[in-house]
Specification:
The complex is a heterotrimer of chains A (587), B (116) and C (231). By secondary structure, chain B is an all-alpha fold. Helices cover 78% and strands 0% of the residues of chain B. In chain B, helix 1 packs antiparallel against helix 3 and helix 3 runs antiparallel to helix 4. Classes of the chains: A alpha/beta (587), B mainly alpha (116), C alpha+beta (231).
């Protein structure tokens, strides 16, 4: 029996911030768009972002996009592509104002303008001191943003397919993307979405680690699908450890706590960040702060019974400021750490938070791959935005609040690019004769598997491997061992067995399919990390402690086929301004 | 078969909601008034009880209060019918019965109060 | 830990039943959701929604020992065993703890949940004083988990006609927004014995809201504004 086919101008996979920003662009252009999401759109993980969205509005002190650009380039440890970074920083004000016009309930300054707070790595005058650049709605910015975007989409009558999971890309003989297969979770029915454009906005895959701030749904579906379709993944070795995840629980505590004046203490009550980043202290970029914390813990200055965590102090801000600016944090600390942060410090540890790498794209959201000597050949019909994409604006380390900005800027620009492409070539390319076969084979394998391992067992082994072998500090022997282990686990993952064979809302099947996506991400991460013989941004190797711009100022491209690696140079030339030359990175 | 449509947006409801509050207040005030009047009586037997209601200053408030109760009851019973009786025709019939009963009670109230 | 969980898979069960589980916990399992995830490793056929596991996405709303709440922020230590888990009441069950929320979202969509302002936007932001912004606190934080609406008897009886506490809270969120210009239309739309006035201030919604919001107060404010424009 053939899968049913539905035709659309564009299919967007994922309804988080970037997917919905792109959807809005297309829906307002009256295109026929399907937006697929594993969860109801307002449940996407953008909802959990807390601190703010970066834009140099200058509402709380002077600021401009060029300073923002400098910070982002420096924050990326010079691995970010400077054309994309310039594009993002210049567009920031526009997209944030648009969001406000959509109804986003930003906090306000006494003048009635959008409230802005300082954040890590965001500085005034090329690194002189912290600047208030993070536009915030209390500590629920992501929630407010995701709801505002959903609401605007409702107004624009975008067509959502809620609780549908995308499974595989469909490419024709030329390699053009002509659609995607997806499963309706409620019925188990698989449909081919035949479209002129497929846009991935599936978010990150933080769930490859045991301790992560990420939601259960962050399983890198877009990345797994892309890798299986023969498209490489870029810079997968770079994973951001957020300095302040609640110890034990992994729940995120926003950097906005430090933006509002909180700071970190070791067990001696020492404000240790003064030693590691004398200028901006606790507001250094995340890789720097996480490493400092891990060093304190490693050298025996961690707090707690086993010296296993660091303390985040904010009681000196006073209950009024906490209740007004950080109400969600107070709730989280009470629930997950049993601490009233208006009285006592919160126990925190660096926790996996964000994937800097992803599906390689240019700043129009078009997926680009090396082909016939051209490092940036566009894959017709395929687009990617948000955390699942690697533009690359974040390089080796993302600055706080740049992710929400990334969603808005590139969600919009990808939407515009899709419209341009559809105008230029309005025809719907034919589906290949074997469309959907690959998906059918995968599903049949899963349903017919006997004597296989459980999904939870294989998943747990994968998460433990990444946690142990690919942490804040990375060691050569552990990396080599990790690659071997993850390959072995990947081999096991194709023999997973589910007991539940029901058609109706079969979450066991969903989790098994998610694991297949996670495995691709985990494998690319280990392989890329082992191969990169330098320390840059979030990738810190004990055997190569320094950045090596001569050999390694380039992006990794990992192909699933044979775990092959290729590299492409970093784009150092911005669009209109002079490049920022690589310098030593001190905060 | 015609698609089942749920039509809402009747543009009323505030007045009823207000009426329940106002009539509730009237009943409360009257209760206090009645208690005060009764307490002030030297004895409390049927003769006294009956004679109290022969005065116009007693009859009018009593009538107003009972009228308030009927309006209050109308909204309350109507709400119950709206919640539990899903069949439209049946609901309408029950509502008409309630209205007729309340109008009858009003007439009966006048008859009782002014025939004392 | 002992749990008693509502099970129903229309693919194979003729009717729903309760199934007992005794699941060993790890010291790191603090919340009810952690226990449910453990149960799923023992029996992969149990179906429930979950995502953020920190109380902001609103996926894992369920009826816990008789009271609606989010599994991810309900502490195991606070629960009496066996913990009885049922799907949210009043909505059709798809499977196990998963309910069909179509009706709930239909009501949410019916209140036009988006800012309406037809004047051309300025180059920058629309100005709003901190005091005006303050009005939105306690409203915009709603996560649409449906704990409130599915604990409301008025919503049980008329889910097709009564907007319900979640929808009305959002209706007031836009009425209260100084930037929204459609207050009259919004009030017109709500002035209906079913849409708004089914609320009898039972306040179950306030009791169960995992975010500590107060839909009853918002509904009261809507009535107050309606009254002001009438008299």
């Amino acid at each position: 029996m053939a899968f049913a086919v539905r035709k659309f101008d564009a299919v967007i996979v994922g309804a988080g911030g970037s997917g919905m920003r792109a959807a809005l662009q297309l829906a307002e252009a009256d295109l026929k768009v399907a937006v697929l999401s594993k969860v109801f759109p307002t449940r996407s993980h953008t909802v959990a972002a807390q601190g703010g969205v970066a834009a140099s509005l200058g509402n709380n002190g002077e600021d401009n996009w060029h300073w923002h650009m400098f910070d982002t380039v420096k924050g990326s440890d010079y691995l970010g592509d400077q054309d994309a970074i310039e594009f993002m920083c210049r567009k920031a004000n526009e997209v944030v104002y648009e969001l406000e016009h959509y109804g986003m309930p930003f906090d306000r300054t006494p003048e009635g303008r959008i409230y802005q707070r300082p954040f890590g790595g965001q500085t005034r005058n090329y690194g002189e001191g912290p600047v208030a650049r993070s536009c915030a709605a209390a500590d629920r910015t992501g929630h407010a943003m995701l709801h505002a975007l959903y609401q605007r989409n409702v107004r624009a009558r975008a067509h959502f397919f809620v609780e549908w999971m995308a499974l595989d890309l469909i490419r024709n003989a030329e390699g053009d993307v002509v659609g995607v297969t997806a499963m309706e979770m409620e019925t188990g029915e698989v449909v081919i979405f035949h479209a002129k454009a497929v846009l991935f906005a599936t978010g990150g895959a933080g769930r490859i680690f045991s301790a992560s701030t990420n939601a259960f749904i962050n399983t890198g579906d877009g990345l797994g699908i892309t890798a299986r379709a023969g498209i490489p993944l870029e810079d997968m070795e770079f994973w951001q450890f957020h300095p302040t995840g609640v110890a034990g629980a992994g729940v995120l505590i926003t950097e906005g706590v430090r933006g509002e004046g909180g700071y970190l203490l070791n067990k001696n009550g020492e404000r240790f960040m003064e030693r590691y980043a004398p200028t901006v202290k606790d507001l250094a970029s995340r890789d720097v702060v996480s490493r400092a914390m891990a060093t304190e813990i490693k050298e025996g200055r961690g707090a707690g019974k086993d010296g296993e965590y660091i303390l985040l102090k904010l009681d000196h801000l006073g209950a009024d400021v906490i209740n007004k600016r950080l109400p969600g944090i107070r709730e989280i600390a009470l629930k997950f750490a049993n601490v009233d942060c208006a009285k006592d410090p919160i126990p925190v540890v660096p926790t996996v938070h964000y994937q800097m790498g992803g599906i390689p794209t240019n700043y129009h959201g078009q997926v680009v791959v090396p082909k016939d000597g051209n490092m940036e050949t566009i894959v017709p019909g395929l687009y990617a935005v948000g955390e699942c994409a690697c533009v690359s604006v974040h390089g080796a380390n993302r600055l706080g609040t740049n992710s929400l900005l990334d969603l808005l800027v590139f969600g919009k620009s990808a939407g515009e690019q899709v419209i341009r492409d559809l105008n230029a070539d309005p025809g719907l390319k034919d589906l290949p004769p074997d469309a959907g076969e690959f998906t059918r084979a995968r599903l049949a394998r899963l349903d017919d598997q006997t004597n296989g391992e459980s999904v939870s067992q294989v998943g747990a082994d994968m998460r433990r491997t990444l946690q142990l072998h690919c942490g804040v500090f990375r060691f050569p022997d552990l990396l080599v061992e990790g690659v071997a282990k993850i390959k072995e686990i990947a081999a096991r993952a194709v023999h997973t067995e589910i007991k539940d064979k029901s058609k109706v809302f079969n979450t066991a099947r969903i989790e098994a399919l998610e694991l297949e996506n996670l495995i691709e991400v985990a494998r690319s991460t280990m392989v890329c990390a082992e191969a990169r013989k330098e320390s840059r941004g979030a990738h810190d190797r004990s055997d190569f402690p320094d950045r090596d711009d001569k050999n390694w100022m380039r992006h990794s491209l990992w192909y699933k086929e044979g775990d092959r690696l290729e590299y492409r140079p970093v784009k150092l030339k911005p669009l209109t301004v002079a490049p920022f030359e690589p310098k030593a990175r001190v905060y | 078969m015609v698609a089942k449509r749920i039509v809402v947006g009747a543009h009323y409801g505030l007045r009823d909601w207000m009426m329940q509050r106002v009539t509730g207040a009237i009943v409360a005030v009257y209760t206090v008034f009645l208690l005060a009047v009764l307490v002030m009586q030297p004895t409390l037997d049927f003769i006294t009880w009956r004679s109290v209601f022969t005065h116009t200053w007693m009859r009018v408030p009593t009538f107003v209060c009972l009228l308030a109760i009927y309006f209050h009851a109308w909204v309350g019973v109507r709400d119950v019918l709206m919640d539990y009786v899903k069949h439209t025709t049946l609901r309408l019939c029950l509502m008409v019965i309630v209205v007729v009963a309340l109008v009858a009670y009003t007439v009966w109230t006048v008859q009782i109060l002014w025939s004392l | 830990m002992r749990l008693s969980i509502y099970r129903y898979d229309p693919d194979k069960d003729a009717k729903p039943y309760m199934r007992e589980y005794d699941v060993p916990l790890e010291p790191t399992d603090q919340m009810l959701l952690d226990a449910l995830v453990r149960v799923k490793t023992l029996d992969d056929s149990i179906a429930f929604r979950r995502s953020c596991r920190e109380g902001v996405c609103g996926s894992d709303a369920m009826n816990i020992n008789g009271k609606n709440g989010l599994a991810c922020i309900t502490k195991i230590a606070d629960l009496k065993e066996p913990v009885v888990l049922r799907p949210l009441p009043g909505l059709p069950v798809i499977r196990d703890l998963i309910v069909d929320m179509t009706q709930f979202f239909k009501q949410y969509h019916s209140i036009k949940p988006y800012l309406i302002n037809e004047t051309p936007p300025p180059e920058g932001e629309r100005l709003q004083t901190p005091e005006e912004r303050e009005e939105l606190n306690g409203l915009y934080e709603c996560i649409l988990c449906a704990c409130c609406s599915t604990s409301c008897p008025s919503f049980w009886w008329n889910p097709d006609k009564f907007v319900g506490p979640a929808g009305l809270l959002q209706a007031y969120r836009f009425i209260a927004d100084s930037r929204d210009q459609a207050t009259s239309e919004r009030l017109d739309d709500l002035e209906d014995p079913y849409r708004l006035f089914r609320c009898h201030s039972i306040m179950n919604c306030v009791d169960v809201c995992p975010k500590g919001l107060n839909p009853t107060r918002a509904i009261g404010k809507i009535k107050e504004i309606m009254l002001k424009r009438t008299v």
